[in-house]
């Protein structure tokens, strides 16, 4: 599964020892090895043929690097644990303004952002408000918060 880099780095920290093999592609994404049938909100299925594989035990950039090196066998991350870590990596939508939920403002500071100009797309999500239907939300961060939050 591929997720935006900021969210992926946060998820690796949240998962700690529960994180399986993970790759920072050096181009804005983090790849998690998960079982083939896994489907996770906020993550895109990765094409194995296009997933960058770092050399040896490379843990520094530039370029692809291991965040969690594979052992003798490549250990997958539990999809439920990864989904929870990805959800925990962002403020809860119930605590955000309408502009933050729809991606027009930074999820951390609330300043307006413009898609593709001064923002970092944190990946679309689904959220189920109490007693309501599942709704989509579109978290984005401004560049300064993205850097400050290490996400």
Strand and helix layout:
Blueprint lengths: L1 E3 H11 L6 E3 L4 E4 L32 E4 L10 H10 L9 H4 L17 E3 L3 E3 L7 E3 L2 E3 H6 L3
Antiparallel strand pairs: 1-3, 2-3, 2-4, 5-8, 6-7
Helix pairs in contact: 1-2
Beta-strand segment tally: 8
Helix content: 10-25%
How far apart are the termini? Answer: 17 Å
How many H/I helical runs? Answer: 4
Strand content: 15-25%
Unreliable parts? none
Cα-atom radius of gyration = 16 Å
The residue-averaged pLDDT reads: 84
Largest sheet: 4 strands, antiparallel
Q: Please write the string of helix (H) and strand (E) elements.
A: EHEEEHHEEEEH
For the biggest β-sheet, the strand order reads 1-3-2-4
Structural class: alpha+beta
The best one-word shape is: globular
Describe the protein in words.
The structure is a single chain. A 4-stranded antiparallel β-sheet has the order 1-3-2-4, with helices on one face. It has a two-stranded antiparallel ribbon with strand order 5-8. It has a two-stranded antiparallel sheet with strand order 6-7. Helix 1 (5-15) crosses helix 2. It is of the alpha+beta class and 151 residues long. The chain is 21% helix and 17% strand. It has helices spanning 5-15, 79-88, 98-101, 143-148; strands at 2-4, 22-24, 29-32, 65-68, 119-121, 125-127, 135-137, 140-142. A hairpin with a 7-residue loop joins strand 6 (125-127) and strand 7. The radius of gyration is 16 Å and the shape is globular. It starts with a strand and ends with a helix.
């Amino acid at each position: 599964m591929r997720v935006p880099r900021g969210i992926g780095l946060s998820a690796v920290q949240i998962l700690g020892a529960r994180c399986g093999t993970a790759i920072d592609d050096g181009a804005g994404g983090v790849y998690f090895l998960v079982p083939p049938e896994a489907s996770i909100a906020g993550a895109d299925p990765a094409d194995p043929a296009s997933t960058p594989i770092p050399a040896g035990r490379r843990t520094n950039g530039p370029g692809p690097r291991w965040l969690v090196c594979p052992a003798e066998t490549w250990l997958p991350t539990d999809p439920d644990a990864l989904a929870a870590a990805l959800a925990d990596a962002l403020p809860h939508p119930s605590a955000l303004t309408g502009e933050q939920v729809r991606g027009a403002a930074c999820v951390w500071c609330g300043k307006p952002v413009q898609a593709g100009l001064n923002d970092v797309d944190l990946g679309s999500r689904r959220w189920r408000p109490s007693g309501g239907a599942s709704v989509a939300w579109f978290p984005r961060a401004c560049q300064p918060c993205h850097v400050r939050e290490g996400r």
